[in-house]
Amino acid sequence: MKLTSTLLLLVAGSFFLFHGCTAGVVAVPEDVVDDWKAEDHTSELINILFERNLYVKRIKEDASQAIVPVEAEEAEEDYVEPEPISEVEDELVQPEVDVNGKIEGRASECKVTIRGGLPTPQPLYLKSGSEEIYPYDTKGVMVVNAGRTLEMWCPGKFTKLDTTLVTATCVSGTNFRVDGTTYAFKELTCKAWPTFVAEKTGASCNGGVMVRVGFKISSTRFAQQYEVCFNEGEEVTRYVHHDLNPGANYYQTGVDRITFQTGGFFDGKNVDKLYTQATQLETINAHLGGDARKYFDSAKNVYLARGHMAAKADFDYGLEQRATFLFINAAPQWQVFNAGNWARIEDGVRAKVSSARWYVDCYTGVYGVTTLPNSDGVQTPLYLAYDSNNNGLIPVPKLYFRVVIEKTSKKGIVFIGVNNPHLTLDEIKKDYIICTDIADRVKYINWKRTDVTAGYSYACEVSDFRSKVTNLPNLSAPGGLLL
């Protein structure tokens, strides 16, 4: 680019405008021109002009070409946006091309949005060299700095790679390099969804044995997703413990629900069949000794469903959502409650955790056994199965609860829902309110909490609730209520 044209364009399109010329002729101070000749660089000329801080005018037909300063306000009013200088394009640094002929961006972090940015079936994403599932930010975005890595695991191998575990290095954007080849993130897919497992840890819990659920990469490497306190004698889960964080409300959508699995528990029973409406009606009818059909109406969602404890939507990654479909992560829940106030509690907590940027421990579980009157009018506990001694197994819970404790502030709260749409308000107030109700102070749950059919619900302080439900760990919330 010639300096003359560059100078004229810069002068015409910048703050150094020359006003008052009749023929569009501009004049440059002589000493400025001398400086320009001495140092043949446009940047130097600009520096000189800025140093002098002059706005100049050419006086009509004045041979002396006097220079008159222009006030700043006048300059702003007369400012014209400069035309783009086409020659500048030649100075842009072209993107580099990798060994595969693919264009690489400039060094920057890689960002992959979980909602919409992941392949199907997706690998398990891990922090390199650890058992930690790869984290995401408060908006559900995986961030990997340029040149840094994450690991991907497909136990049945990748579609494009003949291996089960790879280290992927961030190039830029959503491009990652594996073994010298650069792939778009969505290209790194598994042949099949990674398998999840539930295995005993060898530890006990209050009322059961501890079970960890997650992904077994090797005999010495286990990526845990959540843990379960399971009572094998009664075949009931006391509680499920998992984390919730601000990004948890940006979970991956479109992940298909799968069939619940026993995961090696329940003594070989066909638990899926026990949950079918035909079987549950038969079982409960036989135990009540009368016609139990009046308690069921599938058209109105009045039947027992497989009620998640750690909800599918509590987890961002699709393969994590699939891992919630274990019977040890569920209990019989009336569907009107499942889709009613319980869903509102789950959704409201996730939304608040996201908006308030909370990092919380979440304990979801069940308490007691719900009852219905038998043919003699006697309240009778409900179960989906019985052992050889007619002891009830897989109980229909009396209450569902979710304890939420924020890790930094140590504030907490418990949400409780009544799992029986066949009660009266008087019966609920007499036998189902086990701690002082402080629900009127909660503003972030959009519930119809006194609606019995939708599942009468309330909230309590952690210590108050824990004094009644002793199967929980010794939880506390010294910071006060989480509101």
Which residues sit in consecutive blocks of at least 5 with pLDDT less than 50? 1-106
Question: Could you tell me the radius of gyration in angstroms?
Answer: 34 Å
Strand content: 25-35%
Shape: globular
Structural class: alpha+beta
Task: Give average pLDDT, whole number.
Answer: 84
Cα separation of the termini: 65 Å
- Number of distinct helices: 12
Q: Which bin fits the share of residues in helices? A: 10-25%
**Sheet with most strands:** 9 strands, mixed
Number of strands: 26
Main attributes?
483 residues, alpha+beta, nine-stranded mixed sheet, five-stranded antiparallel sheet, 29% strand, globular, disordered N terminus
Describe the structure.
The protein is of the alpha+beta class and 483 residues long. It contains twelve helices and 26 strands. The strands form eight sheets. Strands 12, 13, 14, 15, 18, 23, 24, 25 and 26 form a nine-stranded mixed beta sheet that branches. A hairpin with a 2-residue loop joins strand 9 and strand 10. The radius of gyration is 34 Å and the shape is globular.
Topology:
Blueprint: H1 3-12, E1 18-19, H2 30-38, H3 42-52, E2 56-57, H4 72-78, E3 96-97, E4 103-104, E5 110-113, H5 114-117, E6 124-127, E7 141-144, E8 149-153, E9 165-172, E10 175-178, E11 181-184, E12 197-205, E13 208-218, E14 221-231, E15 236-244, H6 271-274, H7 277-288, E16 304-308, H8 318-322, E17 330-334, H9 335-338, H10 341-356, E18 360-369, E19 371-373, E20 379-381, E21 383-386, E22 392-395, E23 397-406, E24 411-418, H11 425-431, E25 457-460, H12 462-466, E26 480-481
